[in-house]
């Protein structure tokens, strides 16, 4: 939908663009560098093509990375962690034993992301690069302390996932940069996690999403509790103070109450077409309570 | 029934839909076809000052740009209130102000972007109650000039598109006898029919002046009639082609946008013009369903007898009222559920606002009405301290005895309203409290709602059918009813098979219709198809059979009443070995010496509703419909106070009618149930403060998904038939949707003690109302979620 000036045209067709399908990362990076702000990476296209039809994005050049073998890595190294390449689909992750066993919170989020058909196209990296506040994989990656591997013709860099999102649909990526993979370190020993997604119907976008990760709840010295949320702020957020809070040697009942207060104070949900601010606040409170009870007691 | 085909669960004959070779209008193309693209205004209400399109005309492939000035007249269904393209003013956000026609859609879209319009914004009116205020901005200043049907009552100088009155008894006297009175206002937002096939129309004008149109519509003859009258064309020069329809739900009844490609084709020397809508366009350019305010005051005596009901019903019709004026008539003439009330006083208004235009929707206002009136029933029962089922049974209409709201004495064979309520209560195990789940934040409750409906149609809504016997004894059936998934053609084929004693496989009822080649039917709406076409078809079969008997009687030298038709043969009664096959006589029976008698055998039959009459404009007194189907729905729901979501665990539906095909009825029940539940819980068109529709897509206009279907859906047909209905069967299509929002709201009240007066009953609303009405429940949940240790 383009509401340019005095008229609206609801487009059926995509805008015109030039299409590239490079075979190597180097080629892709060179194209990206050449066309800078006028180019867009195409992974699964489940966000990009929708945005293009709606004229929210109108790249002149589209660089399809699905033909680049080196971006299709999915590799687990015992004791180190998991590397997920930029073209690995959500469906591939859902069917991966390591993801389900070691990184359950991420698996739980992917399981609830879109539907079977979409997940066969959509990528995890695409979900993050799209930087929607409602990105379902983001809270899980936040509590898992994932790292984002970035490349450009000038070299590579790695950032913490919590520093990756800048604003609604904005990341820290420079116009000539792209994400090559996501690395998730070995989760804390004995960690359990859940992703609670509040929806209106089956296969909906998150009204609020909450990921929680808990390890060794009964032992204050080794206890780890992390909470991150989607759809409650301009970007997905982790409430870092929660982890600090739970380091204290206090009764769990007390800490949980404080954690709920803390989470509520750190989010700023709004009213939009999907839900009211009040409903989101309710979901943040009761969702956090529910997850803490399930994971701390269980 | 001692039948072989009727009443049996026979699989649908339109299996080409499963195979993938079914053809829909959207699939249709013509050689040399060009593309039209509409351009919309970004204001809810504004004066058009200037439209500039010279840049658009320069785009290669562009043939023309049109604006309102090219079409200086109005079109419409019951009132001619609609511009082809906006003239003088735009009336809603998304109102088409201009159009491009080009050789390709690419060129049309590119050129569309280059059109510029200057406006002077006007204050919009975005709420139906506001629109009724004396100082409200007028949507249609020239309402007094509009042509309209005699049975709608627009009020020039106001935003009232129609005002319907119903008066029965003496309302003051009624309330003076009431011991308990419940008075509430209910609100239901605009919603969308949500069919899958977006609208498309392909039109061309032939050199002899014949206008041809292929489009996605429910009722080919209504399109023909309205196109011809709107454009001043002779009826026989308009040929409407009907193909399979990918869902209508009322949203494709009547004339939609067919006039647009037709007019464009006329301007372009007859070139075929295609106007195809995408999903967003379908939301903005097609008519959706009205919003509703129901103000209801209902009184009962202390022994539980309904005595008085006063209703003021206000429909938010949007910028054009299309069928909504007739929907106002529907709720105006049936202002309460299937109960007898001595004193009834109702006013129904359709009101123009600066929103998306509105039209018919499956159920024609009655699902909306029963949400309100079945809530009234439960609230009254509560105040009386009476069981809601018992209260309903005490007041339910009795065939042969009760006088309806339109002062009609219900025919003796009208059905079994009480039986439906009793059976639904039994199937939901009414009286047995639901088993509460172990999670302390989940609450279960049961609710029930009763309903009735007949087609809202003119008293002369006719149908006809033709049956042609073919060389090999197979049969072609011609009818005018549209096939949009409801399955009527399968049920009609079953009737033919039954009457002629031939297998279903020997019968063809093509899905395509051409208005110049199939017999007339008024419309495919109002759950009237099988009832009306079925009667016409049975008459056509009688006609055919009498011709068959005549030929056979001559051959066997007996009287016609000594011939019987069985297994595709005409035989002498009592001598089943003395037969001639239908094939032998189909084109004329030839004796061994070559002499031939008879001739191609063709049966014809007609139907008009019997006894129905035009409502009195002051009181509504009338026989509005040729039948009513009665029924009841009951649910068990679970309310989750963490998520705010309501889940229907079990849905029960009972219909009083027999079923020609129980499998088709099951399809209707399951579809109607899922649709009705979802409307109750989720569906709404959301507008921002400037009147812009915010959810013109399936991302945020929430239709039910497969995983939202209730686990347990039970239905039963009681088999109580009406004598003049085909095999007793009355309509069911819309009926299957009517009780759900009301039953669910009643169940929610029983689960958590929260009374709701608004749809949808979405999580936002549930939590908001729990906070207001039962805050202690949330405290309980907090307590239950306390971490131990
Ligand atoms: C029907 C439907 C339902 C959906 N449901 C959900 C849901 O429930 N939850 C949810 O979170 N999302 C949902 N989505 C959104 C979308 O499917 C996901 O965000 C998906 O993970 C995006 O992945 P993709 O590979 O398709 O991304 P693409 O569309 O290919 O890319 C997304 C964006 O990221 C950029 N990009 C992609 N890869 C890179 C890279 N390597 N480096 C730099 N930039 C890159 C692209 O240029 C584009 O702007 C839904 C979408 C649809 C259409």
The largest β sheet of chain B comes out as:
8 strands, mixed
What form of chain A results from the Cα inertia axes? globular
Number of helices of chain B: 19
Radius of gyration of chain B using CA atoms only: 28 Å
Spatial strand sequence of the major β-sheet of chain A:
4-5-10-6-7
Q: What portion of residues of chain A belong to β-strands?
A: 15-25%
Give the name of the CATH architecture of the largest domain in chain A: 2-Layer Sandwich
Number of strands of chain A: 14
What series of H and E elements makes up the topology of chain A?
A: EHEHEEEHHHHHHEEEEEEEEEHHH
Decide which structural class fits the backbone of chain B. Answer: alpha+beta
CATH homologous superfamily caption of the largest domain in chain B: Aldehyde oxidase/xanthine dehydrogenase, molybdopterin binding domain
| Fold-level CATH name of the largest domain in chain B | Aldehyde Oxidoreductase, domain 4
Helix proportion of residues of chain A, in percent? 25-40%
Give the overall average pLDDT of chain B: 97
Written account of the structure:
With 298 residues, chain A is an alpha+beta fold. Chain A is built from eleven helices and 14 strands. Chain A starts with 17 loop residues before the first strand and ends with a helix. Chain B is globular, with a radius of gyration of 28 Å. Chain B starts with 15 loop residues before the first helix and ends in a 5-residue tail after the last helix. In chain B, strands 3-7-1-14-11-12-13-24 form an eight-stranded mixed sheet, with helices on both faces. Chain B has a five-stranded mixed sheet with strand order 9-18-17-16-10. The complex binds flavin-adenine dinucleotide. Flavin-adenine dinucleotide binds next to strand 2, helix 2, helix 7 and strand 10 of chain A.
SSE topology:
The complex is a heterodimer of chains A (298) and B (789).
Chain A: E1 18-20, H1 25-35, E2 39-42, H2 48-53, E3 61-64, E4 74-77, E5 81-85, H3 90-94, H4 97-102, H5 104-111, H6 116-119, H7 124-130, H8 137-143, E6 147-152, E7 155-160, E8 165-167, E9 170-171, E10 178-185, E11 192-198, E12 208-215, E13 224-230, E14 237-238, H9 240-245, H10 252-266, H11 277-297
Parallel strand pairs in A: 1-3, 2-3
Antiparallel strand pairs in A: 4-5, 5-10, 6-7, 6-10, 8-9, 11-12, 12-13, 13-14
Helix pairs in contact in A: 5-8, 10-11
Chain B: H1 16-19, E1 34-40, E2 46-52, H2 54-57, E3 62-67, E4 74-75, E5 82-83, E6 89-90, E7 96-102, H3 105-112, E8 116-121, H4 128-132, E9 160-168, H5 171-176, E10 180-188, E11 200-205, E12 211-215, H6 220-231, E13 238-242, H7 259-267, E14 273-276, H8 279-285, E15 288-289, E16 291-300, E17 306-318, H9 324-333, E18 343-352, E19 358-359, H10 366-384, H11 388-395, H12 417-427, E20 442-453, E21 463-469, E22 475-479, H13 488-500, E23 507-508, E24 513-514, H14 529-556, E25 563-566, E26 569-572, E27 575-581, H15 582-586, E28 587-590, E29 596-600, E30 602-607, E31 629-640, E32 646-655, H16 662-681, E33 712-717, H17 740-752, H18 763-773, H19 775-784
Parallel strand pairs in B: 1-14, 12-13, 15-19, 17-18, 22-23, 32-33
Antiparallel strand pairs in B: 1-7, 2-6, 2-8, 3-7, 4-5, 9-18, 10-16, 11-12, 11-14, 13-24, 16-17, 20-31, 21-22, 21-30, 25-26, 26-27, 28-29, 31-32
Residues 40-48, 50, 86, 113-114, 118, 121-123, 125-127, 129-130, 134-136, 173, 178-179, 205 of chain A line the site of flavin-adenine dinucleotide.
